[in-house]
Design goal:
By secondary structure, the protein is mainly beta. Helix content is about 15%, strand content about 50%. The protein has a single domain, classed as Sandwich (Immunoglobulin-like), CATH 2.60.40.2020.
Length: about 130
């Protein structure tokens, strides 16, 4: 009886791990495009890259509340040189939390200039299965 129970548990674990979808890392790079559509699954990681100019005070940020994802950390990577004003990548990480469809708008602005309009905007249309 002990052997049958062990065999049953091994078979059930095998079936459950095959049914689960492995997490995927999806990298989205915005350079000149104003909008992108991405399909993802719950548990996936989105890495979103925006080009920016270092040392200018401008940063990319989501303009409102995001419902389908949770934002993680933001990092900065040099593209060519380590000089003030040189182009850099602003790299944001998000974890997809739930299925649905959502437009996420990102704005390029100086957060300390509250009355100024965004210098640029980009839109991500996210479809989560």
């Amino acid at each position: 009886m002990k052997h049958l129970t062990t065999l049953f548990l091994l078979v059930m674990v095998g079936f459950s791990t095959k049914a689960m979808k492995p997490e995927t890392v999806i990298t989205i790079t915005f350079s000149g495009e104003k909008q992108k559509t991405i399909r993802a699954h719950k548990g996936d990681t989105l890495i979103i890259k925006f080009q920016m100019a270092s040392g200018t005070g401008f940063v990319w940020q989501p303009s409102g509340k995001i419902n389908l994802c949770k934002q993680g950390d933001t990092k900065y990577e040099h593209i060519k040189r380590n000089l003030p004003g040189a182009p850099m990548w602003e790299v944001m990480n998000f974890i997809v939390l739930s299925p649905g469809e959502e437009d996420i708008t990102f704005v390029y602005h100086r957060p300390f200039e509250k009355s100024m309009a965004a210098a640029k905007t980009r839109k991500l249309h996210l479809i989560v299965h």
